[in-house]
TrEMBL record:
The keyword Hydrolase does not apply. Residues 17-339 form the Enoyl reductase (ER) domain. SUPFAM superfamilies: GroES-like (SSF50129), NAD(P)-binding Rossmann-fold domains (SSF51735). Gene3D superfamilies: Medium-chain alcohol dehydrogenases, catalytic domain (3.90.180.10), NAD(P)-binding Rossmann-like Domain (3.40.50.720). Keywords: Metal-binding, Oxidoreductase, Zinc. CDD domains: AL_MDR. The keyword Metal-binding applies. Signal peptide: none annotated. PANTHER family: PROTEIN AST1-RELATED. This is Zinc-type alcohol dehydrogenase-like protein. InterPro entries: ADH-like_C, ADH-like_N, ADH_Zn_typ-1, ER, GroES-like_sf, Lipid_raft_assoc_Zn_ADH, NAD(P)-bd_dom_sf, Quin_OxRdtase/zeta-crystal_CS. It comes from the Bacteria.
Length: 343
């Protein structure tokens, strides 16, 4: 089981234009702990968390830091306490930010946050989905408290800010499946079209105030808002557009203090979603991520949901990953960018 393997990592935190921002390295093939799966990685996808962790900052790493928190692959080994998977199983998962990422030939992951890969998806299509699917599911159903029974959501609406991005593309589909009236923000013709194709009943621009645009379309205030882009920038616009006693969930950290007293008059609930919380703190309900990905796997196989993969890059190496990071940092990405080990 031991030996060397290929990986892509970093020693210095640099702009993506610098060839040393991500480099090809050889590291020891890891050995699974008691609850770990050793996964032979077949495809990975790139998320904003990768570019944030990699971005320019002080400090250097003695050992290469490995990024990548979206994996599809095949179980190649397991720890003594693993009960849910066996060698040869095809799996998909998002991993944890507390451990090395999956930008390597083999990767270790706790089985409680892993699920069997949807049978109808390729490794590339599956790798695009775990982190964004978990974020969207937890944001909608755990944090905002949207009902899983579509009948209970009749007449209720949700505004999804940043609808054409990775999380938005799956949140649109889940919100539509849950029976909500779905409004997505999109500013370009291609992002508007993408949002409509993935479940938006209406699109509005995130560059203008939300409430007047909703009213122009004959809509009232939104019962829920899911903020996937710049909490700071949209804060006051969200306060105007949210219905009294409505709920807002954001996945984006703030860079400036926000006036939370704006929540008071309408008795608004504001909550944050961070997909790594359960794995980072090994919460009692950590296995829920296995359950969510399993449930969503069925939804992919039943064609209720579709993969949001839009671009596959290959081969797996530092140059390809720098390209993927660069695409993401352009701010113009629609859906998900995946790097394949198979091509």
């Amino acid at each position: 089981m031991s030996g060397k393997m290929k990986a892509v990592g970093l020693y210095k935190y640099l702009p993506i234009s610098d060839p040393e921002s991500l480099v090809d390295v050889e590291i020891e093939k890891p050995v699974p702990g008691e609850k770990d799966l050793l996964v032979n990685v077949k495809a990975i996808s790139v998320n904003p968390v990768d570019t944030k962790v990699r971005g320019p900052k002080e400090g250097m790493e003695k050992e290469p830091k490995i990024l990548g928190w979206d994996v599809s692959g095949i179980v190649a080994g397991s720890g003594s306490e693993v009960t849910m998977f066996k060698e040869g199983d095809e799996v998909y998962y998002a991993g944890t930010i507390a451990r090395p990422g999956g930008n390597s030939d083999y990767h270790l992951v706790d089985e409680r946050i892993v699920a069997h890969k949807p049978k109808t998806l390729s490794h590339e299509e599956a790798a695009a989905m775990p982190l964004t699917s978990l974020t969207a599911w937890e944001g909608l159903f755990d944090r905002l408290g949207v009902s899983l029974a579509p009948d209970e959501n009749k007449g209720k609406s949700i505004l999804i800010i940043g609808a054409a991005g990775g999380v938005g593309s799956i949140a649109l589909q889940l919100a539509k499946w849950a029976g909500l009236t779905v409004i997505g923000t999109a500013s370009r013709p291609e992002t508007k079209e993408w949002a409509k194709e993935h479940g938006a009943d209406y699109t509005i621009s995130h560059y203008e105030d939300f409430l007047p645009q909703l009213k122009q379309k004959g809509l009232t205030e939104a019962d829920y808002i899911f903020c996937l882009n710049s909490t700071d920038e949209h804060w006051e616009k969200m306060m105007e557009a949210i219905a009294p006693q409505g709920k807002i969930c954001s996945i984006v950290e703030t860079s400036t203090p926000l006036d939370i007293s704006l929540l008071q008059q309408k008795s608004i609930t504001f909550v944050m979603e961070f997909m790594f919380t359960r794995s980072l703190f090994e919460t009692d309900d950590m296995i829920k991520q296995h359950e969510i990905l399993t449930e969503m796997g069925k939804m992919f196989d039943d064609r209720i949901l579709t993969s949001t993969l839009t671009e596959t890059l290959a081969p797996f190496n530092a140059e390809t990953l720098r390209k993927a990071h660069s695409r993401l940092e352009s701010g113009k990405t629609i859906g998900k960018v995946v790097v394949s080990h198979n091509k």
